[in-house]
Design a protein that fits this description.
four-stranded antiparallel β-sheet; binds adenosine-5'-triphosphate; binds magnesium ion; alpha/beta; Rossmann fold
C-alpha cells in the first residue's frame, strides 16, 4: 500500500495520465507522455500519424497494460489490468469501428452485454432480459441527447455512420461513465454526420461527462474542445486553451516548426 500522498494527486482533474512510457519491441511509442483532464471539459489530443495518441488512449482504457507511468481518477491512483477495470472506473472508449451489433436494434446495442435483468423473480432466475425497461431507459437517454436516433427499435444496420457513432456515445451515458474517450470519431463520416457527432460531443458536457477526443481535423478541434494537448514523437509537448491559440500554432507544434518550450508558459 502506497502512502496517501502518493495515492492522491490533483483533485481538480477527473483524469490524469502521468509520465506514460511504452514500447512495442524496438518502437518507442510513448516517452513520458502526460495529460490531465478537468471535470466537464473536452480535451483534444492531436499529433501526427504515429505520435502515440492511440497508444496513450489504449492505456487509459485498459487495453494496453501500463508499464511505466501512473493513472489517476479524481486524484486516486488506479491500477488497470483490463478494459473492464477502466469501464468500472468510469472510462468509456468509443472506437471508430464501434463494435455495434448490426443484427440488434438501437436499444439492444445500448444495453449490449449488460442487459437489465427483469425484477420479476422467475424471470430473474431465468436471466431473462426485461426488454420493456431497456427500451424505456434507452429512449430516455437517446432523447436527452442533441442528436436524434429515428427509433430505438430500428436496426442499427440501416443507421448512418453518424447515428451509429452517437449510439455508441449514448452507451457511455447509459452506464453513467463520466469520462468518454473518442479516437477519431469523425474520420469516416460525411459532412452532415460529422456535424451531428460534433454537436453531441459538445452536448456531453451538459451530461456531466468529460471528454478526450483525437482528431486530425483542426477545425473540429477548435469547434468542440476547451483545451488541446499536442503530441510529437511519443511525447506530450504542449497544452493550450483553445481560446488562447490558433490553428497555425497547433499545426506548428505538431510538425515541429514551433518548438516547445515550457519556456513560453
Ligand atoms: N500494436 C502495435 N505493435 C507495434 N507497434 C505499434 C502498435 N501500435 C502502435 N505501434 C507504433 O507505435 C507508434 C504510435 O502509434 P499510435 O497508434 O499510438 O499513433 P497515433 O498517434 O494514434 O497515430 P494515428 O494518427 O496514425 O492514428 C507508431 O510508431 C506505431 O507504428
Ligand atoms: Mg491513432
Amino acid at each position: 500500500m502506497l502512502p496517501l500522498n502518493q495515492m492522491l494527486n490533483n483533485n481538480n482533474h477527473i483524469l490524469e495520465a502521468k509520465e506514460f512510457s511504452h514500447s512495442f519491441g524496438a518502437v518507442k511509442a510513448l516517452t513520458n507522455a502526460s495529460l490531465a483532464l478537468k471535470k466537464n471539459e473536452v480535451m483534444g489530443l492531436v499529433g501526427d500519424n504515429g505520435a502515440g495518441k492511440s497508444t496513450l488512449l489504449k492505456i487509459l482504457s485498459g487495453i494496453i497494460p501500463l508499464s511505466t507511468g501512473k493513472v489517476y481518477i479524481e486524484g486516486k491512483l488506479q491500477n488497470f489490468r483490463s478494459a473492464q477495470d477502466a469501464l468500472d472506473a468510469g472510462i468509456e472508449t468509443v472506437y471508430q469501428d464501434l463494435a455495434l451489433v448490426d443484427s440488434m436494434n438501437a436499444f439492444q446495442n445500448v444495453y449490449l452485454g449488460r442487459e437489465e435483468i427483469s425484477s420479476n423473480p422467475i424471470a430473474k432466475l431465468l436471466r431473462l432480459v426485461d426488454d420493456k425497461k431497456m427500451r424505456e431507459k434507452s429512449k430516455e437517454i437517446l432523447e436527452s441527447l442533441a442528436v436524434k436516433i429515428p427509433s430505438v427499435n430500428g436496426n442499427v444496420k440501416s443507421m448512418s455512420g453518424g447515428q451509429r457513432q452517437c449510439l455508441a456515445i449514448a452507451r457511455a451515458l447509459m452506464w453513467k461513465r463520466n469520462i468518454v474517450i473518442l479516437d477519431e470519431p469523425t474520420a469516416a463520416l460525411g459532412v452532415q454526420e460529422t456535424e451531428q457527432v460534433l454537436e453531441l460531443i459538445k452536448d456531453l458536457k451538459s451530461h456531466n461527462v468529460s471528454v478526450i477526443v483525437v482528431s486530425h481535423n483542426m477545425q473540429h478541434i477548435m469547434a468542440v474542445c476547451d483545451r488541446v494537448t499536442i503530441m510529437r514523437l511519443g511525447s506530450t509537448i504542449a497544452t493550450r486553451d483553445i481560446k488562447n491559440t490558433e490553428i497555425s500554432e497547433i499545426v506548428g507544434l505538431i510538425t515541429g516548426a514551433i518548438l516547445e518550450e515550457n519556456k513560453k508558459n
